[in-house]
Amino acid sequence: MYAIVDIETTGGHASANGITEVAICIHDGIQVTHRYETLINPGRDIPVYIRALTGISNEMVQDAPPFKQVAHEIYQLLHDKIFVAHNVNFDYSFLRYHLAASGYDLNCNKLCTVRLGRKIIPGLPSYSLGKLCHSLGINNESRHRAGGDASATAELFGLLLSRDANKHILSALKKNSKEQNLPPHLNKTIIEKLPLMPGVYYFHDQKGKVIYVGKAVNIKKRVCSHFSGNNPNLQRQEFLRNIHHISHQECGTELMALALEAIEIKRLWPKYNRSLKRFEHTFGLYTYEDQRGYLRLAVDKHRKYSDSVHSCRSLLEGYSLLNQLIEEFELCPKLCFIQKNNEPCTGNYKEQCACTGQMDVHIYNQKVQYAISSLKEQLPTFALRDKGRNYDEQSCILIENGRFYGMGYITNDFDADNFDALKAHLSPYPDNGYIRNMVLSHAERYPAKKVEFGMVLA
């Protein structure tokens, strides 16, 4: 038995919106045997654009039952049936969410008449309910009302049943089939062709624009996880409505995938990505000249349009480094903002220090320059070699003078000890603190993967 469902709501996702109308047609595979329809008081205002679309006003639902009052009856109609709807995940997510809030756990097999329509009757100009019904000669005098749309969907479903020579409906209902969890506009063959290896994947909208970028250790498994379950939140519901295509880039390792994901999010700025969009390196060691001509060192938050002399992964790391420079090069703790009180300078020169103006500017500034030079000499230049996308290649990420240069793939017999040849073989990318820190941390954990080079002159 099939329960063919249509609902009207106050908005696009279940967790923040109510249901205003429910219609259910019970179908035995031949005909509709029972119809159920009711208005529902959503307990909130119906937005004006929803009122204009459906014709359901606040006054119409004022005396209608709240969902909890009809939840038992709706559950009894649905729980042992195959749940059918046009764009099934929308209707199912709403009813499952509100039934759960009323104490009922709905868990049905699902069929989507959008997906089935594309398979059983291919080549039509549109598979929206209104245009699909118009193409097939199905009459619907109550468009955007639950009763009218449910009846039209029931007639459409009967037509699909009669034309399903290749048994697409039976295939979709098989226990191991996950097809009904997929977005309605996404072809199943796209999922089937995804590889089981690390990489980056892209969700595209109807116009081909990238709306989400993600990384994965297993691309196919990770992509499918986006469509599993019945999460009612806004992002998942918009995914299901807007994803029309998926593309991908394979990577040799998870680290390469993480780096490429960060690069692509910065490049494409996809609509649904939240993390990494605003990430910038947190702290840096900066230098500037004060009014008296003394060079000063300071740990500060990352400045977008100013280069630091050294990058720090944390404020603590920055201050620890600065204290080391003060001790090694006899710098003034006051001019480095380590000593911030009005007490006498605690540095080696006491009252003869630069902070009192007693030390020659040139002499003090030379100490600062030596400190900066020592930092630059410590900046690492190395490549990380690891697994490639196949047995004939290796992945390679290059850090040059402490900054992320780029990455790519080399053959197994490539001479990675030749810095200039290696650099020319890799794709350069903008320096990225997030990637840099990941690579440095990875190199600390797996030193055997490093190919080290001496300091490279700019």
Task: Give an account of the 3D structure.
The chain is α+β, with helices and mostly antiparallel strands and 458 residues long. The chain folds into four domains: 2-176, Nucleotidyltransferase, domain 5 (2-Layer Sandwich), CATH 3.30.420; 188-268, GIY-YIG endonuclease (3-Layer(aba) Sandwich); 283-378, no CATH class; 381-453, no CATH class. Helices cover 36% and strands 21% of the residues. The chain contains 16 helices and 16 strands. It has helices at 48-54, 58-61, 67-78, 88-101, 113-120, 129-136, 146-163, 168-172, 188-192, 219-225, 234-242, 254-268, 315-329, 361-378, 419-425, 433-445, and strands spanning 2-9, 19-27, 32-39, 82-85, 110-112, 199-204, 210-216, 245-250, 283-289, 295-301, 310-312, 381-387, 393-400, 403-411, 427-428, 450-453. The strands form four sheets. Strands 3-2-1-4-5 form a five-stranded mixed sheet. It has a five-stranded antiparallel sheet with strand order 15-14-13-12-16. Strand 13 and strand 14 form a beta hairpin. The longest helix is centred in the middle third of the chain and has 18 residues, at 146-163. It is elongated, with a radius of gyration of 32 Å. The protein starts with a strand and ends in a 5-residue tail after the last strand.
